[in-house]
Amino acid sequence: MDTHTTVNQKMWDELAPLHATSRHYDVDSFLRRCDSLERLEIEEVGEVAGKRLLHLMCHIGLDTLSWAWRGAQVTGLDFSAEAVRIAQDLAERTGTPAEFVCADVMTAADHLDGGYDIVFLSKGILMWIEDVAGWARTCARLVRPGGTFYILDFHPLALALAPAGDGGGLVVEGDYFHKDSPVVVVKDGSYAVSEPGMKNQESREWAHSLGEVVTALVDAGIRIEFLHEFASTTWSGGAADSDENAARHRLPTAFSIRGVKD
Q1: 3-state DSSP call for residue 115?
Q2: Are 131 and 211 in contact (CB under 8 A)?
Q3: Where are the domains of the chain?
Q4: 243 pLDDT exceeds 90?
Q5: Is the pTM of this model over 0.85?
Q6: pLDDT digit string (tens) for 32-48?
């Protein structure tokens, strides 16, 4: 595992138990309603009953288990041992058949047999990927011929923007196009927890344009069925999705891609 990935892994190992007890994830309510999926994901992925579904970068496994409750035969993969431990515990507590594997997404094909009917990724994915072309090839290796690839993620344009200040509007704060060197972020907490006193506060992130992502998937053998862009969703944050900023309805904050492996 390279240095950048190791730094991120340490942060996520520390965040996983904090997330599992956070209001944001609300695990107690999740266990009662047995579903954490967005309606958008359910509609766009389609029927999963009886299908083998691989959830890459699954974190603590809530969405993975949600697909299992909809009839899929699920496997979740994440590079955080703590996240995988929590996911396995939740599967046992709910009596849900699910396999969880601790491995880096870039080497997932070395740890899994492949041949999945559906490979699924959602919410906060590409910012953690340095080599998108390699990532796309790995995803394609894991999908069976005729199988489905699906991703829902933050729009790279929204990630590059920030509120301009009290006067409203937006400014370009980050990169839209990929650079070889990562952006180093130091933050005590995450989108789910604020200032918990973390030891591992540093992370490494990358930008990838929509064109780069689509090209990588096509080159890897994924035939694109659709690319959708969304002005607002229930989860996509950032400058362009702020309630205080009228521009949020004029710019995309999220995108989804579904494709088929030929």
Answers
A1: coil
A2: no
A3: 3-261
A4: no
A5: yes
A6: 877 999 999 999 999 99
Cα–Cα distance for residue pair 137/102, rounded to 1 Å:
19
Q: Is 174 buried (19+), middle (13-18) or exposed (0-12) by CB count in 10 A?
A: middle
Tokens coding 234: 């229930």
Q: Assess contact for 77 and 57: CB atoms under 8 A.
A: yes
Cα separation, 36 vs 26, in Å, equals 10
Mean model confidence pLDDT for the chain: 93
Q: Specify the pairing of strand 202-205 against strand 73-78.
A: unpaired
Residue 217's CB is within 10 A of a number of other CB atoms, namely 25
Instruction: Provide the H-helix boundaries in 144-250.
Output: 156-160, 210-219
CATH number for the domain whose boundaries are 3-261: 3.40.50.150
Q: Which two tokens stand for residue 172?
A: 């370009």
Name the burial class of residue 150, with classes exposed (0-12), middle (13-18) and buried (19+) by CB atoms within 10 angstroms of its CB: buried
* DSSP calls for 50-87: T-EEEEES-TTSHHHHHHHHTT-EEEEEES-HHHHHHH
Neighbours of 167 (CB within 10 A): 6
Q: Which two structure tokens, joined as six digits, stand for 240?
A: 């362009």
Q: How far is CA 66 from CA 17, 28, 90, 100, 225, in A?
A: 19, 14, 11, 14, 24
